[in-house]
Design brief:
The chain has one domain (about 1-295). It is mainly α. A hairpin with a 5-residue loop joins β4 (about 235-245) and β5. Mean pLDDT is about 85; it is low at about 365-370. The strands form 2 sheets. Strands 1-5-4 form a 3-stranded antiparallel beta sheet. It contains 14 helices and 5 strands. The longest helix is centred in the C-terminal third of the chain and has 35 residues, at about 260-295. The protein has helices at about 1-10, 20-45, 60-70, 110-135, 135-140, 150-170, 175-200, 210-220, 225-230, 260-295, 295-305, 310-320, 325-335, 340-370, and strands spanning about 55, 75, 105, 235-245, 250-255. The chain is elongated, with a radius of gyration of 31 Å. InterPro entries: Innexin (IPR000990). It is found in: Cell junction, Gap junction; Cell membrane. GO terms for molecular function: gap junction channel activity.
């Protein structure tokens, strides 16, 4: 088991360069990691026992029956789910079938490991898009200035290169920032869509799964029925047909134990609550982005709060003379570059903007005088 999780460390490496938000990193880093880990746990049968064990007759090979019932699915009886265990039935839903329409088939448990892996890919997709669109801009502009330990000459040259880029490309980063915001929106759509995907996967029983589990824990012991066994039954029935000695078709009703569903139910209870939390955090992030797009005052306030070393008048001037995409670039650079170096670059950028305004106004006044 430990070898599995050691191997997962190489799958998702934490990058020292942060070009996204912490909530966005929860999608492609933490969530993808746990989904792949769950997929491996379900797949590795030796850690959870046999996925299915069926009670069989003497003349029926055990492996044959188990394999058949695993491939062709098992079922429970809908009308027997709420009957009293130990009096009317041996387990909720396990009863002699009288009507084919009363059967509830369980076909999905063979596909749980594949579904979890597919979900992990979907959670990583917005990150893959942003990584392609971002093009390593933040890493290139950093120039190893995140540490700040280098010679004064080298530091001065690198700060000048960063400053020159910011000055020459001021007001040209909106589309770059909007691509990132699109990726955050796709991450939100993905987590909501996956709730409905799993609801479809589990025959419409997943959207209220977490609430049903909480209600089950608060209800009286005598009246309650575990909602987890409605989606992940631990005991089911399986019908196997074979030819008898005389050549006639014989029907064998087998009772099957599904130990793997004990693991599956815990996985999806966790995922239900985690997806709800992640969806709320991502929705709050999207609202935050909308406020940033339409409110320059909020952009000024956020830079002031986050980077206190920079003078307030410098921040006001920079935000007033730049666009939203530039603000996003400044914020990401501040997250990665040494705070003192970032302060110097921003102060110098403000000085250039101030000088530019002065020369522009001076030229305007001279034109008036000449006229």
């Amino acid at each position: 088991m430990l070898d599995i999780f050691r191997g997962l460390k190489n799958f998702i490496k934490l990058n020292n360069v942060h070009n996204d938000s912490p909530v966005f990193r929860l999608h492609y880093s933490f969530t993808s990691l746990i989904l792949i880990a769950f997929s491996l746990i379900v797949t590795t049968r030796q850690y959870v026992g046999n996925p299915i064990d069926c009670v069989h007759t003497k003349d029926l090979p055990e492996d044959v029956l188990n394999t058949y019932c695993w491939i062709h699915s098992t079922y429970t009886i809908k009308s027997a789910i709420y009957k009293k265990v130990g009096v009317e039935v041996i387990y909720p839903g396990v009863e002699t079938s009288k009507n084919e329409k009363d059967k509830k088939l369980y076909k999905y448990y063979q596909w749980v490991c594949f579904c979890l892996f597919f979900q992990a890919i979907l959670f990583y997709t917005p990150r893959w898009l942003w990584k392609s669109w971002e093009g390593g801009k933040i890493h290139a502009l950093m120039m190893d200035l995140d540490i700040g330990i280098c010679s004064d000459i080298e530091k001065k040259q690198k700060k000048k290169l960063m400053l020159d880029y910011l000055w020459e490309n001021l007001r040209y980063h909106n589309w770059w920032a909007y691509k990132y915001y699109l990726c955050e929106f796709l991450a939100f759509i993905n987590v909501i869509g996956q709730m409905f995907l799993m609801n479809r996967f589990f025959d419409g029983a997943f959207l209220t799964f977490g609430i049903d589990v909480l209600n089950f824990m608060d209800s009286d012991e005598e009246d309650r029925v575990d909602p987890m066994i409605l989606i992940f039954p631990r005991m089911t029935k399986c019908t196997f047909y074979k030819y008898g000695v005389s050549g006639e078709v014989e029907k064998h009703d087998a009772i099957c134990i599904l130990p793997l569903n004990v693991v599956n139910e815990k996985i999806y209870v966790f995922l239900w609550f985690w997806f709800i939390i992640l969806a709320c955090l991502t929705f709050a992030t999207i609202i935050y982005r909308i406020i940033i797009i339409f409110s320059p005052r909020m952009r000024v306030y956020l830079l002031r709060i986050r980077y206190r070393l920079i003078r307030k008048d410098a921040i006001d001037l920079i935000v007033r003379r730049s666009k939203m995409g530039d603000w996003f670039l400044f914020y990401m650079l501040g997250e990665n570059v040494d705070s003192v170096i970032f302060r110097d670059v921003m102060q110098e950028l403000a000085n250039r903007l101030l000088k530019h305004n002065f020369h522009h106004m001076g030229g305007f006044k001279s034109d008036i005088q000449d006229a």
